[in-house]
Amino acid sequence: MVKMRRYWIRKLLALPMILLVASFLIFAAVRLLPGDPARLMAGMQADQQSVNAARTRLGLDKPFAIQYGLFLRGVLHGDLGISIRSHKPVEEEIAQRFPFTLALTSVSYLFAIAVGITSGVLAALYAGSAIDHAVMVSAIAGASIANYWLALMAMNLFAVQLGWLPLLGADSWKNYILPAITLGLLPAAVIARMCRASMLEILNQDYMRTARAKGLTGAGLYIKHGLRNALIPIVTIAGMNFGSLLGGAVITETVFNWPGLGRLMVDAVRYRDYATIQGITLLTVALVTLINLIVEVMIGVLDPRIRFE
Amino acid sequence: MTEDTLPGNIVQPWTARVRSNLRYANLSVGATIIVLLVLAAAFAPLLAQRDPYTQNLAITFLPPGHGHIFGTDEYGRDMFARVLFGARLSLLEIALSVGMSLTIGVPLGLLAGYAGGMVDSTILWASDTLYAFPGIVLAILIVAILGPGFFDSLIAISVFAIPAYIRLARNLTLTLKGSEFSEAARALGASPGRILFRHILPNAALPILVQATLTAGDVVLTASGLSFLGLGAQPPLTEWGAMMASGRNFLGVATYLTLFPGLAITVTAMGLNLLGDGLRDRFDPRFHKG
Amino acid sequence: MDPADHTASLTADVLSPMYEGLTQFDSHLNIVPWLATSWKVDASGKQWTFMLRRDVYFHDGIPFNAEAVVHSFRRLMDPARGLAGRSRIQGIIGSVQAQGDHTVVFTLMNPYAPFLRVLAVTPIVSPAADNNGILSRYAVGTGPYRFVEWRTGEYVLEQRNDAYWGKRPVVKQLKWMWTTEPVLMEMSVLARQADIVNPLPPIFAEALSHNRKVQLIEGKSTAVFWVALNLQMKPLDDKRVRQALNYGVDREGLVRTQLRGFGTPANSPLAPSDFGYNPANRGYTYDPAYAKQLLAQAGYPNGFSLKIVVQEADEPLAEALQGMWARIGVRLEIDRMEHGVFSQTIFASPEAKRAQGIGGVLASWAANNADPDYQLSPLYRTSAWSPAGANVGFYSNPRLDALLREAAGELDLEKRKALYYQAQRIITEDAPHVLLYATRDVAAEHVGTVPEAVHLLPGSQIVLDGQ
């Protein structure tokens, strides 16, 4: 127990360290970007004097260390700076757009887990059957499709040819269908394969055979004994995939014109909106780190046997 | 556990049947796709009959059919030739990018696992920090710094694959370090370097290879995603993602411009995933016990 | 949201229903009185006096008056404010003074013929809103629509201004959404998820032109696309080489394939909608054989390699050039850049460009006031060599400089036109740019959704005509 507590304390202490280093990396990386935000702010048709004025306004004429210091102080006070493009505070922009990304990733996550677990369990129960084959082939295909391509094809079919689904905005549940499926497909495929593999393994375990020998059959058996144990690798893989889901959101949001953080990030990089890039990247890094930690905790809860070193 | 110790219940026949079916199906289908891809890349000029870069503004947007089985693009270039030549770039992409992440990730993982202590925690911690950046976000930043281009996007893709190799190599080393042959080698006075590279690495090679095959599929997808965002190969390179990125502006008008490169990406990624799965099923020690 | 502090023309589109200038363009691009009801200019051509419209109020209730006009211009002219719009009036206006409540006097540095056009694209803002520092986030003007809400990445909402002084529009509410995906625009207007899409890429304009559900709204050709050649580099310092590159471009082919017919081949550095454009100016024909001959004369019978920079959106055009120039032996290397890098690279000094081996820049220029001075001076005058201006290829011809200076101050329209005819001839002959085409602005409306006429102004700005 002492060992475990020490492990957790170490993990928790590492968290701010990772964030501090990440913040420095992000800050430095952003300043390594070629391109001049002052020129962008002043406009393509501006003269040198206006460009210099813009540079002062952005605080980019100060030494690097001072800029970083000011940035860190700001972050600690919840102040992420002002966006060059919208002239709004970055934290306000993020607060406005993060819910859209969160909603989209959550919906596609639920979709991925529902579809992934159902088909994975089915495939394992009916291993070797046509169902199994269909699930496995779809899973491999799902993990192999470029999601933006699928998005484009789906948009063309469902929104333009058939006219069933909307294209613009994010206000109705219908707006979620295409992007959520697009984004959720890859994790669904991964979860399905994982779920099938661990279900098969568990179905082979002694206690399952014992349970069956005791006359326990039916869905209850599988759910009570099988699924619970199969959950461990699923939680692991699901947690690990959260980062890539956030990453995938960048492309999906671009394709679907989704008003979330991913598209904001792409635009911010394109327009050298330093403060916005810093804010979004820092937030995602913090989120991913936190979620990885939560996943570890959950695994610990699900399976106390797992050792920590 | 061997099969004949199992009581005659329904569990065993399932798994045995599935494994023998799927294992070899995966492996052979995957290998076939990849071999075909390599052949297509090697003989692209012969198969295509046309130059993928020659423009002809008199025959733009020809739908698939007569003389141009995949149609022509907005410059009147033959899409079949472009998709075929694209196979060359994709293979190069895979080889370079997987190669880069392997050569950086694996030695670091070996070192971390073998040395332990401060070295281990430092490497692990650095790898965790890198891993905390969602792949595409990291790639966008790296490409933005380096400037868009074929090789620059490869570097970006390689960098974010590194943590996975570090972790894998480290865990394998931890396991293998305690194994009998390592102990024996150490007892015989072998140097750490010798133990690492002569004893541990050869035994770790197979799982690493499986992992590499599986990530190769992701490489193709990610590279095309970067191209799609305008951060990949420069024109007029026949990179599939770049072809799709420009083709998407003609969706509905000339949908085949996105269809064929998209299919090519999907088939390639599928081939690699099947191959990787097949290899894992065949060589993963966990599957031998059943 | 600040009309003086944005750079993208699409932002101008969103702001234009809320802001107004002292003058305005009608749909034929003539200047008409707007917030100023009349004006006069003195004999020197430098002092302009404007009589202001009375009983006009800003959306925040503040009266529109001389003080507001003075405030709007002074904040623009203040270098310390560093507003992006400064470059548009810099070097033109010397001072601006109020004379009583309803008269404003501008003193120009030099006589400037298109001054009234400059005023049409300089919005008057509420001084109170500016003093409160809220203009970057809220729009407070005098226009027919009031600002309601701006959700970044989602939409901007505008409500009809019922206290508007002029002709009231029919449409009660405007909702602006934007996308970086052209195909989404086509799909949304087809599926009636948008009433109007603007600007519509040519390929979709062509596809939709046969669709009965959609009606195209066409403006005039305004933006001229070109490759500015770096005259500080060999072999581009040789006029024959530059002309050869011009002869090597199939402009008709470009208009047909890149613009799907929605534009005109460039025969002049001016766009057809610009004042003084000479439709009869003799541009370059497509003559690859002659181009090769010129290259041989210049000492490059086997052609040469040329690197140009281009931003993402214009990359297809560069790719088409790559194919065309390959036929005259010129190997074109395209360096596609993100917007942020591009804007920095193209404004680099001659030394920096030579060091990077940048032989050309593919870009476009549109004079949003449809005046030839704004189309030519920033691009071709010696004083506009980058980084000071957009003469990014370092072209210099003292005769042209003098001509452009004279034409800018010439108030007699016929004389002014004649000067620009000369300027067009000189620039075409010297060939500092490979002139490609002028695009025609196109928007599309889902038939029957907008209860009033709509037209486009230069810079693809959409205008509701009201009733």
Automatic annotation (TrEMBL), chain A:
Record Pfam families: BPD_transp_1 (PF00528), BPD_transp_1_N (PF19300)
Species for this entry: Acidipila rosea
Lipid bilayer topology: Multi-pass membrane protein
Protein name: Glutathione transport system permease protein
InterPro entries to which the protein is assigned, alphabetical: BPD_transp_1_N, MetI-like, MetI-like_sf
Keyword Cell division: no
Spans through the membrane: 12-33, 107-127, 139-164, 176-195, 230-256, 276-302
Record-level GO cellular component terms: plasma membrane
GO biological process, any: transmembrane transport
Source domain of life: Bacteria
Keyword match Transferase: no
Family per similarity comment: Belongs to the binding-protein-dependent transport system permease family.
This protein's UniProt keywords: Cell membrane, Membrane, Transmembrane, Transmembrane helix, Transport
SUPFAM superfamilies in UniProt: MetI-like (SSF161098)
Entry's localization field: Cell membrane
ABC transmembrane type-1 domain segment(s): 98-295
Automatic annotation (TrEMBL), chain B:
UniProt entry tagged with the keyword Transmembrane: yes
Domain ABC transmembrane type-1 intervals: 87-276
Membrane topology, record value: Multi-pass membrane protein
Cellular component terms per the entry's GO annotation: plasma membrane
Signal peptide: none
Primary localization: membrane
Protein's name in the database: Glutathione transport system permease protein
Species of provenance: Acidipila rosea
